[in-house]
């Protein structure tokens, strides 16, 4: 095992600890203010609904060259990836619209 493998393992460990801290710490902090949990729940529910809409309109088509090794894509995997991509595009578009509206709002004030 060389140093590259060790550092890769340390990197994975630090990413895992960061994810745990990013999820657990806000939950601990929100015990003081339960109203913030409702806002988080509404946001998560909104993204979930957006994903379900994107998943329902995505295609499950798999080209023959991707259905064999090394990709082994299935129609279900293709539909899931399509749903995630469409959700990403929609969230990116919504963020751009939000930025433009915020800047126009600042300009008018």
Mean pLDDT: 91
Order of helices and strands: HHH
Overall radius of gyration:
20 Å
The total number of structural domains is 2
> What share of residues are in beta strands?
under 5%
Alpha-beta classification: mainly alpha
Apparent shape: extended
Count of separate DSSP helical elements: 3
Parts with pLDDT < 50 across at least 5 consecutive residues: none
Q: How far is the first residue's CA from the last residue's CA? A: 61 Å
Number of strands: 0
Transmembrane segments: 6-28, 40-58, 78-101
Keywords: Membrane, Transmembrane, Transmembrane helix
Describe the structure.
The chain is built from 3 helices and no strands. The chain has 109 residues and is an all-alpha fold. Helix 2 (35-57) crosses helix 3 (75-108).
List the helices and strands and how they pair.
Layout: H1 3-29, H2 35-57, H3 75-108
Helix pairs in contact: 2-3
Quickly describe the structure:
The protein is mainly α and 109 residues long.
Give structural attributes.
109 residues, mainly alpha, 2 domains, 3 helices, transmembrane helix, membrane, transmembrane
């Amino acid at each position: 095992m060389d140093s590259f493998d060790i550092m890769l393992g340390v990197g994975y460990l630090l990413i895992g600890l960061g994810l745990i801290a990013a999820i657990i710490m806000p939950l601990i902090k929100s015990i003081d203010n339960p109203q913030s949990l409702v806002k988080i729940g509404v946001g998560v529910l909104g993204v979930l609904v957006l994903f379900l809409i994107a998943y329902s309109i995505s295609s499950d088509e798999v080209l023959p060259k991707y259905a064999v090794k090394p990709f082994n894509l299935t129609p279900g995997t293709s539909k899931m990836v399509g749903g995630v991509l469409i959700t990403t595009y929609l969230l990116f578009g919504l963020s751009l619209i939000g930025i433009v509206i915020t800047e126009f709002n600042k300009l008018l004030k």
